[in-house]
Amino acid sequence: MSFDVIIIGGGPTGVTAAIQIAKAGNKVLIVEKEEEKAIGYRVGGGVVKLHTFSGVGFPRPTGDELIAYLDTFNIYSPTAKTKKVVNHGAMIVDRLLMNQRLLGYAREAGISIKTETELKSLNIVDGKVTGITTTTDESIEAKIVIDASGLNGVGRKHLPDSFKIEKEIDSKYIAKAYVELLPTPKESTEISSYLAVCNGYVWHTPTEIGFGSFDHSLNLKEKLHEFIAEHIHVKTDSAYSSYGNIAVRQNISNMVGNGFLAVGDAACMVSPIEGAGLTTSMIGAKLAGEVINECLAKNDLSQNALWSFNVKYNTTHGAQMAYMDMLRRGLIGLPPDDIDFAFKQDVVTDKDVLDSITGDIANVSAFDKASRVFRGIRKPHILLRLEACMNKSKEIKNHYLHFPTSANGFDEWLNRTNQLNNSFS
Fold first, then answer.
1. Longest Cα pair distance anywhere in the chain, in angstroms?
2. What is the rounded average pLDDT for all residues in the chain?
3. Neighbours of 69 (CB within 10 A)
4. Number of C-alpha atoms within 13 angstroms, CB side, residue 25?
5. What's the whole-number mean pLDDT along residues 6-34?
6. CA 350 to CA 407: how far, in whole Å?
């Protein structure tokens, strides 16, 4: 059996890429470990920015698939005493219904879907991925394999070192997460996040409340219930709950190899501020599809040919996420009382939070700087840290905007990336 493209994973990322590629007349296979009717199921809704569906060419959700529209994002200090409020155009969707709708589009586009099938290994010949072998020892050939399998990156783990793609994600970047549903969805248009709670954060939407932490020794359920009792006072339903992992970091810098591309959670395309990945992953998948179509038309699926995906993603969305990640690290590196102070005294403003979510570089006037100094004069170390954080955030975004146009300059670029990241904690 042979295809132009094999995609590992039938979630929104994999299906978005598949449809984009199939539209160009290419033969596509999606390989998915779940049975088809279960593809997309997760406890809780998915948060998607309003522009997502138009950006990837799909109609917006309607009916039962659309749970709620969101217009406000509240970011609370760790003690929940103070908050910053920004406009936030997004929606909460039923992940299962959305995924099933997209799979219907995939069927209409002539895409083959092989369910209840797991990857055993990638087929690699002369330094090029040439297909996959399943756990039933079925070998399927392809010109390129896309790993859209999620954070575990089941395809990424089998790559040769020569590709210079991260095969394993360091556990220090992984937040363990626990979520419980609300018994009845709230009639609300707000989503809230509580920063720096037990080395992590709590999120609260109209449908769920959850807790993610980098401290893997914590009892997440117990800590979440303690936080709810002290600060939020809502009822949840432990019968509808789940555990998971979230990558909170910059995306993988190199996502392509000879006959291979990683996208979505498999490439850590998750917003470091919101912890949401549907929008970034689906937009990344569309971009991946466009690049792969160009490469298939030229019959060149080498790393050099696919490199333009790295360039296009990293100089746009990657640069924004690197900026967000550095700002996040700067803020949560403060003690909880200092974050409370910075929020209460407007040393951190609503606009700062908005810029951190959008990835826009904040330009602070001399007058505003002077005002912040006056408001934060009792704790000058906060001002110094935030100033350093802002400068490092701008520096790393600018660094991503100059991502190398070929693999030849990648090692030098990556070394500088590591230096920037290690210079601020």
1. 70
2. 91
3. 12
4. 3
5. 98
6. 40
